């Protein structure tokens, strides 16, 4: 496994190391694909189940519907505000998240904060800054004179973020029974890029054995947040 240089020095074979590394990577990818294929091996049954749910028209239960616009307590506002990323860029208000946290923690501001958040949630009384945002462009690569080589991100005002987190957390409590597990982009805690490998595995396993209608159904269910250019 070694080569002897003319100078007598013993050096490791770079080619051997590289070939072993490539072999290891391929083995890892095969194991990963096997795991994904195991998860979606019964995809035909999943599709049947999903279509039956669609036929029954999935709705929220009344108690779940009533809980969505329920009043926001100051403790809930503080909790979600403290979970905001401290290093994130603020929006047009230029208010750092650390300062917002101090303001919300101050008991003198609790009545105002409570009134603003619940007025928005229950009566759609949006504060004017909540309707403002900034679109920032982040350069990616290649020719920066081309717009396609930039990634756009939206920066909302700082005090808007805590409210959106509250709304998102409430929706996630009821969405798990409505949104299929294969739509990983919608599920909190799931890595969104897994869809790339799942849809490719679906394409290889499911498409040759199915009808054109079932093929389209599989793609529409599994394609969520997957870039078509990668297929």
UniProtKB/TrEMBL annotation:
Protein name: Reverse transcriptase domain-containing protein
């Amino acid at each position: 496994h070694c080569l002897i240089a003319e100078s007598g020095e013993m050096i490791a074979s770079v080619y051997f190391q590289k070939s072993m590394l490539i072999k290891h990577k391929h083995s890892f990818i095969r194991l990963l694909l096997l795991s994904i294929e195991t998860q979606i091996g019964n995809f035909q049954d999943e599709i049947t189940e999903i279509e039956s749910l669609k036929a029954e028209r999935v709705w929220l239960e009344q108690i779940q519907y009533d809980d969505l616009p329920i009043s926001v307590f100051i403790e809930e506002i503080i909790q979600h505000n403290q979970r905001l990323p401290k290093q994130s860029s603020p929006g047009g208000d230029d208010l750092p998240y650390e300062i917002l946290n101090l303001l919300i923690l101050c008991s003198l501001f609790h009545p105002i904060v409570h009134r603003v958040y619940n007025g928005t949630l229950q009566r759609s009384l949006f504060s004017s800054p909540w309707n403002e945002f900034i679109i920032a462009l982040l350069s990616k690569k290649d020719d920066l004179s081309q717009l396609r080589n930039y990634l756009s991100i939206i920066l909302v005002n700082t005090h808007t973020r805590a409210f959106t987190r509250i709304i998102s957390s409430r929706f996630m409590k009821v969405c798990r029974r409505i949104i299929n597990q294969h739509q990983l982009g919608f599920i909190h805690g799931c890595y969104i890029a897994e869809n790339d490998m799942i849809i490719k595995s679906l394409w290889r396993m499911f498409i040759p054995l199915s009808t054109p209608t079932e093929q389209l159904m599989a793609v529409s269910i599994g394609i969520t947040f997957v870039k078509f250019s990668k297929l």
